[in-house]
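Ticket opened by: R.M.
Priority: normal
Category: complex prediction / small molecule

The reporter submitted a protein together with LP7C6HRI and asked that the result be attached to this ticket for the collaborator who will pick it up next week. Submitted input follows.
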Amino acid sequence: MYLYTAQEMRDLDRYAIEEIGIPGMVLMENAGHAVARRLLDRWRRSATAVVLSGSGNNGGDGFVIARRLASAGWDVSLWIAGSVEKMSQETRTFYEACIHAGVTGEFYDSSQKQALARHLEHSDVVVDALLGTGIRGELREPVRTLIRMVNQQARGFVVAVDVPSGVDTDTGAVASEAVVADKTITFAHPKWCHYLRPAAERCGNVRVEDIGIPQQAVHLSPPSSRINEPSLWQAYLKPRSRWSHKGDFGHLLVVGGSRGMLGAAVMAGTAALRTGAGLATVAVPEGQEQALAAQVTEALVWGWPDDGQGHFSAGFPQDWEKRVRRLKAVAAGPGLGRFDGEEEWLRRLLQQAPVPLVLDADALNILSKDPSLLRERRQPTVLTPHPGEMARLSGQGVKEVESSRRRIAREWAQAWGVTVVLKGTYTLIAFPDGTQVLNTTGGPALAKAGSGDILTGILGALLARGIPEKAAVPMGVYLHGLAGQQAVTSTEHSVLARDVIAAIGPAIRPFL
Ligand SMILES: NC(=O)C1=CN([C@@H]2O[C@H](COP(=O)(O)OP(=O)(O)OC[C@H]3O[C@@H](n4cnc5c(N)ncnc54)[C@H](O)[C@@H]3O)[C@@H](O)[C@H]2O)[C@H](O)CC1
Ligand SMILES: [K+]
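Result attached by the on-call engineer:
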């Protein structure tokens, strides 16, 4: 499934209308019909509805909905923002059809405030068709008042048509007012605002309805972003052959686990093995080797020159060149800590690890001192920042990162030629070629220390198996989210990182 911007959706619409020859009116009728059908399914007996329509095509959908609900026997009260003159041809046609079909519509002005408030309070359903993807600039009256009234006065079920009025389709920003919906019914494809905060919090439950735009129109010029789904990577997951040996499944090196943070490296290494790595080696500061070996029996242990107190030092193992030849991928960061000479250390790792590299946690914080270190990289590099780490990397505030997730992840990936996995409720993956994949698996159970370390291990393992990063990264993020969901046995509060690791196998299984 693709993820659309407002412009990409307009282009798709235009293609369907002008090149394929489906009249715009048919698309609008289909859109309105789809919403009405959902409402009629839900309220089988007749109900009361307030339909609020703007003068654009979103309002046109609203007129179709009002007509169809009324003809099914609902008591419909229609309120319009704007005027007939402002309506597009399709919208105007459906406005007239609505009136001819006997629905009474009012062009809202402030003298009707009381009357509208009464309707909003007493209606089972409120349909928000004021503004869709065509919003421009700050809200004008009377739309602004109408949106505020919906939020303050509606007692019934609020359905947003396409997007909640007042949200920006592409950034997920909200205007001075934006409808808070219980459900959003969108057309043909999901849009960015359905997944980006704060807009996403106003959408309620999002449902995508087919309105008859042929698939061929999508394939001709696909948008640059999509929702993460197994079809992107499932071909790389296969049952193991009877003749397999561990060398077939790659050797991952996890670098981290400084004193006091050993658990992070343990979790990354264990998650890698659960994901199917043939071999996982965990490299910890020399003073930590014994403690590590006691915690993870399945991984190999390497000592890394330490500072005498169980933390990393700027040095590298003497035989690094020889050791690195055995590796298929490196994941650095879980429990790495900060240390003297860290920048030089990272520069060397970036240069002298000629395999796919995952950077997480403190490896990202070190990188944020000088992102130009990435210029030295020739092999795939995956960064897995949470919003705080992304803020440090990009030199911006966390709020700025959160309000421009889509742009920041894409710009960073393109500028430095790396894959950015910007973590969050909907983790966003941005590739160096400008394409993006938004992940929808996962849940609140993963909001806990250790989750990031597990993701790092999973991604490292998949890259070590030689799966190309365009498949490995979405696969890893998807499976990590699924494991997080499946690890919940009693409540999301009490899930431990180890439960998530144990759930990796059950998450993978259906895809083999
Ligand atoms: N394939 C599809 O997805 C289809 C979608 N349809 C619907 O069409 C809208 C987009 O319609 P458009 O006419 O481009 O824009 P809007 O109706 O969202 O908005 C234009 C309308 O709103 C007024 N306006 C704009 N900005 C503001 C503002 N800041 N304050 C107040 N008023 C504003 C402007 O003057 C216009 O009157 C899409 O979302 C779908 O719902 C079609 O039905 C066909 C298929
Ligand atoms: K709307």
